[in-house]
Design goal:
The complex is a heterodimer of chains A (244) and B (307). Helix content of chain A is 38%, strand content 27%. With 244 residues, chain A is of the alpha/beta class. By secondary structure, chain B is an alpha/beta fold. Chain B is built from 11 helices and 14 strands. The chains are: A alpha/beta (244), B alpha/beta (307).
């Protein structure tokens, strides 16, 4: 049994009368690619914000990288990486300024930033665009850069919120190659997506339905459990179950 | 049949960047024309020109006989446009947004309610919620209602389902089919390949040019070569084993499978591939010939562009 890196126990979050996250319990194992699926409004973003230490749970508890999200949120933040589709990079800063800004936030020293930043740019073949404004880069490059920056401080765990939204099929596949490479280096990947082919690329997936975890397992286990051939049909079965 | 929307030789530069390079096409009254292509291909520029928000450097376009240069006022009053970025008023409620858009077009919700009924029923429970507080799928449904409420002559939808979950996307497209069948032609762009197959015709756009424009069926029939699909537990493994095989033109992950594109599937090629797999694979796998899907065609076209 591998180590547990995220442990959520009876986690709930209410906004007024609305229960966004409803008593969820699950764990993510160290080193896995964990897909966090669910319909718009199912509670994914709220759950993710709690796990990142950005939002306090109303009840229940969670530990991330061994730290309690409610009482040790600063330690949680220093040990994770985070990338969202929209807000990750500053369009009006250069590639290098974005790198040093984020690395600085993660308390890396100037020498470390210089070293890690240059290695990263070499790997991405972006060295000659060091001084280009991020806003002028194609979306595919931006996304790769955003991911590399999200893991520049070598976190144990990285949260990715719809990292491939609106991206073409070739760029999406290239992005997933990067995720695999990071997973091989030992970084746990927690990712949300609406592309169901990407759900199949995960080691395990959970599907949130109305604030609860409706299903959790490997993609193959879920298809067998619901006796269907695709993840789309698993989601459809869960949605129908909810209506009935 | 007379084209309802027509574009001839559209060109647009941004500085030195050529965003649209001589784009021509037609859209007929009873069809959904889909534009697909990578980010930066020129899709949004094209939508902005057709909706008269941007003036092309060269070229002509018309909608139901109205010219984008001369008749821009008439065009704006009679079409529906859903831009790629959510553009409704976040601090107005669902109901208020809808009334607002009906009113500025001199219409009312009651007058055209039949057009949006199917979609709006789902939004009704949230009628008094602020648009900014809706989930992604609900926002897109509201934006579609607002684009439809004045009974437009034609609908322009720029990536209406980006960020929308899979089930909501299916419903959204069911709505689009109904709208088309009511006589409103639709021009739509999408990054989702499964949606391309729901269009009547698809234009593949790359670097500002239309590379291919045809029905999804014809595009799939035009796939060049044969496809094998491998399923196994560790997908990276066959990929690594077959990566540098000369007979293979491309290798792409497809959900739980790996698609291998070949120029032909003659006995010697198949034998070569199976012997490589036999030697290298340490867990069971299945291999079979499959028909390409739209995404295979898109990947092939993009691959050819790169060369």
């Amino acid at each position: 049994m591998s180590d547990v890196i995220i442990q959520a126990s009876n986690l709930s979050r209410r906004f007024g009368n609305f229960v966004a996250v409803d008593n969820i319990t699950f764990e993510v194992r160290s080193g896995e690619i964990f897909g966090f699926l669910g319909a718009n409004g199912a509670g994914k973003t709220t759950a993710m914000r709690i796990l990142c230490g950005l939002l306090a749970p109303s009840s229940g508890s969670a530990t991330v990288c061994g730290y309690d999200v409610a009482t040790q949120s600063e330690q949680v933040k220093l040990n994770i990486g985070y990338m969202s589709q929209r807000f990750s990079l500053f369009d009006d800063l250069s590639v290098w300024d974005n790198i040093s800004f984020y690395a600085g936030i993660y308390k890396m020293s100037r020498a470390q930033i210089k070293d890690a930043g240059n290695t990263m740019l070499d790997k991405l073949e972006l060295s000659k665009y060091k001084n280009r404004l991020v806003g002028s880069l194609p979306l595919g490059w931006k996304q790769k850069l955003a991911f590399a920056i999200a893991i520049i401080h070598k976190p144990q765990l990285v949260f990715l919120d719809e990292p491939t939204g609106g991206v073409d099929p070739i760029t999406r596949r290239a992005f997933w190659d990067m995720l695999y490479a990071a997973a091989i280096e030992g970084i746990t990947i927690f990712v949300t997506t609406h592309y169901l082919d990407e759900a199949e690329y995960c080691d395990r997936i959970s599907i949130m339905v109305n604030g609860k975890i409706g299903a959790l397992g490997t993609p193959l286990e879920l298809k067998e459990q619901f006796k269907v051939l695709s993840i789309y049909d698993v989601i459809l079965a869960l949605a129908r179950g909810e209506e009935a | 049949m007379q084209a309802f929307i027509s574009a001839q030789g559209l060109v647009k530069h941004y500085g030195n960047t050529l965003a649209l390079d001589n784009v021509s096409f037609e859209v007929y009254q009873n069809e959904i024309l889909g534009f697909i292509g990578p980010d930066g291909a020129g899709k949004s520029t094209l939508f902005e020109i057709l909706t008269t928000l941007l003036i092309p450097d060269a070229g002509e376009a018309s909608i139901n006989g109205m010219d984008i240069h001369k008749d821009y006022g008439k065009i704006r009053a009679s079409i529906g446009f859903m831009p790629g970025k959510f553009s409704l008023y976040q601090d107005l409620t669902v109901q208020e947004n809808l009334s607002f858009f009906a009113n500025i077009f001199g219409s009312s919700i009651e007058e055209n309610y039949h057009l949006i009924k199917g979609i709006y029923e789902l939004l009704k429970p949230f009628a008094n919620r602020k648009a900014g507080a809706l989930s992604g799928g609900m926002k897109q449904k509201l934006a579609l209602c607002c684009a439809l409420i004045h009974k437009p002559l034609a609908l322009f939808l720029d990536e209406p389902t980006t960020g929308v979950d899979a089930v909501s996307r299916t419903e959204f497209w069911d709505n689009l089919m109904q709208i088309r069948d009511s006589g409103i032609p639709i021009v739509v762009s999408t990054p989702y390949m499964d949606e391309a197959t729901r269009c009547d015709r698809v234009a593949m756009i790359h670097n500002g040019r239309i590379m291919k424009l045809d029905t999804p069926d014809n595009i799939i029939k035009g796939y060049d070569g044969k496809l094998l699909s491998i399923t196994c537990k560790d997908r990276q493994k066959p990929k690594a084993l077959l990566q540098n095989e000369a007979a293979i033109t491309s290798l792409y992950s497809f959900g739980d499978a790996l698609h291998i594109s070949l120029n032909n599937t003659d006995a010697s090629t198949l034998k070569l591939i199976s012997s490589k797999l036999e030697q290298g694979m340490d867990s069971p796998y299945q291999i079979k010939e499959v028909f390409p899907i739209f995404e295979d065609c898109f990947l092939q076209l993009m691959g050819q562009m790169k060369k």
